[in-house]
Design a protein that fits this description.
Elements: E1 38-43, E2 52-57, E3 63-68, H1 80-84, E4 99-100, E5 109-110, H2 113-131, E6 136-140, H3 146-159, E7 165-167, H4 174-184, E8 201-205, H5 209-212, H6 217-225, E9 229-233, E10 246-248, H7 255-268, H8 274-280, E11 281-282, H9 284-291, H10 296-303, H11 307-319, E12 323-327, H12 329-332, H13 337-350, E13 360-363, E14 382-383, E15 387-388, H14 392-402, H15 416-424, E16 430-434, H16 438-441, H17 445-454, E17 457-462, E18 474-477, E19 486-489, E20 494-498, H18 511-521, H19 533-544, H20 556-562, E21 565-566, E22 593-594, E23 613-618, H21 634-639, E24 645-647, E25 658-663, E26 666-674, E27 682-686, E28 715-721, H22 741-744
Parallel strand pairs: 6-7, 6-16, 8-9, 8-12, 9-10, 11-22, 12-13, 16-17, 17-18, 23-27, 24-26
Antiparallel strand pairs: 1-2, 2-3, 4-5, 4-18, 14-15, 19-20, 20-21, 23-28, 25-26, 25-28
Helix pairs in contact: 3-18, 3-19, 4-13, 7-10, 7-11, 7-13, 10-11, 15-17
Length: 765
């Protein structure tokens, strides 16, 4: 009799381990059957799932294709973005020489590296001499390898000597990070993806899994196949919501009222796990008193959902033997984002669904390194290892590792959006941006453009000329992910190794090289003697040792052998920590989970007769973040050439009708995508495009007071008929180049794309 195949995908079926390549053998030992072709095992550059893939490399050393890989994470699956990602590497839009101009009225010209670096250093010194060290800022990105995010934080504080450093993960997961730290004392998901296959109830809030994390759908549907009840909380009936047992289509901006009410029912019906609460939690009495004020009748009125649906969710989740809750940006992108996350944590803790196989809580990261990108120092309030900028002992530890005096380490800085406001006020006069595109990704575009235009000097690192880079004084051409080694941490906090597949084009340098060279010219070269990513990683291991975010036991070799290790991993013989809280202890000094009181409040942009609708934004399956990468790839542009506005049939529009969306920030015209899969009082626009088709020209720059995340997911709006949809601009290109025509032809299609996320969306006439 043969042994049964285990359900946990992190465990290899008996007898098959030798046939699997879970990150396995170093890249140079993989060779394809085709003569002269090599397969390099690596991971996708896009979302926080971090699917394994092979890059196909020809005999000339150039990447020319991709193959899926039987990695534990994705098991041979890739989404449309992953399949097309390799096309970035040798794309004709790649920047291959530094671009420079002395003022924005001049066109860019290609220059040598010495001229661009010297000009940048001269401007840094001029601005800091005239206005102080904090007059220069640095903004990083959560799609960088973790080694580079470590360097961003160190470069800002040691080479630039400025307090002003932050990153675009501020627009992604910081509400979840804040909630996790408050409740658990650690900032990461508590369970691996594979635990979904063991649960009896899976609740997903504010996450369009089918489009934003397509390969993760295998875990969601795997849970369903094994009998789990699926609950989706989302204003839109997304592709995954259509398959759910319960779809809660609440009004945007009401999440914490809903989850407080669910917990109210749990308490009222005696479904709490009092033994777990007594042993492992603090703050429960205060939370219980607060949720008493959220009976289903009140929450139903706030959220626009039936009372009986609130009761049903409470009974199903609390009554399950094992239940899990996951959430993403739909819960976090709010002025009450931290509270929204805490309200879900409170529900999990009160029902005892924490720290067990199939029972727990987690956050789905949007960017490829959304988890690792905030762990080691590029966030304004954190130092490597998740250390606090305001903790004297943490500061002392890092100064010792970096070899600087404690008086030299600047204080904590401000958040990304706050830095833009400081640019407007002339408090920040110079800026370097790395791996970000705020002209598309930040809210209230007019404010962002004004802030950047006010800068006296702006340099940007990128491999394509983004909308933000096109506004800069200097653009440094840097490598894509396939041209360098490095690690990322996916949504499970699993650290995975990306392998270099080809040499970069002549004239292109790694982000690491550019930062180290700038540091050398600024007089801090002795602190930035890093010839490659491995040397940075070795210092990162030392800098994280003994912290909650401990990477010290992770090595490149172990990652190659195992396919990924989940931190904390304090020693080289430690297996990593895929599941937290199994011993009932949190990472607070008292070992308890600190439950937090949550009160719902309305969104920051008030509704009125003039603005009665909720505008919400999000992603679509073909594109990624600001679209600087995906809007250049032919198949993805053909699949989704332009943004649209989803509207309910009750408003009388037909597919393709020009619809003007108006908020207090401005107006734009989109083709209608008419679907009854959205609430009648809500409209949706995907945000991957620049003005004049930018969703973020309309969104509000209100921030969560704790996490400083913008309130992307809800603002007051109105809709009205228009005459013509706004044209989609082509992506910027370097001097003397035209937009890649094969990737841009479908932008002229005036109709919305057929959409997978709702019923009634295939009509195009």
């Amino acid at each position: 009799m043969t042994s049964p195949v285990p359900l946990d995908p992190s465990v290899a079926p008996p007898g098959t381990r030798e046939f699997r390549d879970a990150g396995g053998i170093p890249a140079d030992r993989w060779h394809a059957d085709q003569n002269g072709e090599t397969l390099v095992p690596t991971h996708c550059c896009f979302c926080g799932v971090q699917c394994g893939m092979y890059l196909r490399v020809d005999r000339g050393g150039k990447v020319f294709g991709v193959e899926p890989r039987n990695h534990d994470i994705n098991r041979m699956r890739l989404c449309p973005k992953g399949i097309n990602a390799y096309q970035q590497v040798n794309h004709p839009d790649r920047l291959t020489a530094p671009l420079m101009r002395h003022n924005r009225d001049q066109p860019f010209r290609e220059v040598g590296w010495d001229e661009a670096l010297d000009f940048t250093v001269a401007e840094i010194r001029r601005i800091q001499t005239e206005y102080g060290m904090d007059a220069f800022g640095l903004l990083g990105g959560a799609s960088l390898y973790t080694e580079k995010t470590y360097l961003v934080g160190k470069f800002a504080r040691v080479a630039l000597k400025t307090r002003h450093v932050d990153y675009n993960g501020r627009l992604c997961m910081v509400s979840a990070a804040g909630a996790n730290k408050l409740a658990f004392g650690i900032d990461r998901a508590g369970n691996p993806f594979s635990d979904m296959l063991l649960t009896d109830c899976l609740l997903i809030a504010g996450s369009n899994v089918g489009e934003c994390f397509p390969v993760m759908t295998q875990y969601v549907w795997g849970a369903r196949d094994r009998g789990a009840t699926l609950i989706i909380v989302d204003p839109r009936e997304t592709a995954v919501a259509r398959t759910a047992d319960i779809h809660v289509a609440l009004k945007p901006g009401t999440d914490s009222a809903f989850f407080n009410s669910v917990l109210h029912v749990v308490v009222a019906e005696g479904l709490t796990d009092e033994a777990y609460l007594a042993a492992h939690a603090t703050g429960w009495d205060e939370v219980k008193r607060t949720v008493a004020g959220y009976p289903p009748a009140r929450a139903a009125e706030i959220c626009g959902v039936p009372e009986e649906q609130i009761v049903r969710v409470a009974r199903v989740f609390a009554g399950a033997g094992k239940a899990m809750a996951w959430h993403a940006r739909g819960v976090e992108h709010h002025s009450q984002g931290v509270e929204n996350c805490l309200s879900i944590i409170n529900l999990c803790v009160a029902t005892g669904h924490i720290g067990r196989p199939g029972a727990g809580y987690g956050t789905l990261t949007g960017q490829g390194n959304g988890q690792g990108g905030r762990e080691h120092g590029q966030k304004s309030d954190l130092l490597p290892g998740g250390r606090s900028m305001t903790n004297p002992e943490h500061r002392r530890q890092i100064c010792e590792i970096w070899g600087i005096d404690e008086s030299e380490l600047p204080p904590a800085g401000t958040s990304m959006m706050e830095m833009v406001w400081q640019m407007q006020r002339h408090e920040i006069r110079g800026l370097i941006g790395i791996c970000n595109n705020p002209f598309v990704s930040l809210p209230h575009y007019a404010t962002v453009k004004d802030g950047y235009d006010t800068l006296e000097f702006h340099a940007q690192f990128d491999f394509f000329l983004s909308e933000t880079a096109a506004n800069a004084h200097v653009v440094f051409p840097v490598t894509v992910w396939a041209e360098d080694d490095g690690v990322m941490a996916n949504a499970e906090a699993r650290v995975v190794k990306h392998n270099k597949a080809q040499e970069p084009p002549a004239g292109v340098r790694t982000d690491t090289w550019v930062m180290c060279e700038l540091a050398r010219r600024l007089g801090a070269g002795d602190k930035f003697d890093f010839p490659d990513s491995r040397s940075v990683f070795e210092e990162l291991r030392v800098a994280s040792a003994g912290t909650v975010n401990d990477y010290s036991g992770i090595t490149y070799e172990r990652l190659e052998e195992t396919g990924g290790i989940v931190w904390p991993c304090p020693s080289v013989d430690h297996p990593g920590t895929p599941r937290l809280f199994e011993d009932g202890r949190s990472y607070h000094p008292d070992g308890k989970i600190h439950m937090q009181v949550v009160e719902w409040h309305p969104p920051m942009d008030p509704y009125s007769e003039e603005f009665p609708f909720s505008l919400t934004t999000g992603r679509t399956v073909a594109h990624y973040l600001s679209g600087n990468q995906t809007r250049r790839l032919g198949a993805l542009v053909e699949q989704t050439p332009r943004p649209w506005v989803e509207v309910h049939p009750a408003h009388g529009f037909r597919n393709g009708d020009p619809v003007r969306v108006v908020t207090r920030r401005g107006s734009e015209v989109f083709p209608a995508l008419v679907t009854d899969a959205i609430r009648p009082d809500t409209v949706f626009i995907p945000y991957h495009w620049p003005v004049p088709t930018a969703a973020n020209a309309l969104t509000i720059d209100a921030l969560d007071p704790r996490s400083k995340i913008p309130e992307y997911k809800v603002c007051a709006a109105r809709i009205e008929a228009a005459e013509k949809v706004d044209d989609v601009p082509a992506p910027p290109t370097g001097p003397g180049r035209l937009a890649y025509p094969e990737a841009q032809v479908s932008r002229v299609d005036p109709l919305p794309p057929t959409s997978p996320q709702g019923r009634g969306t295939s009509e195009r006439s």
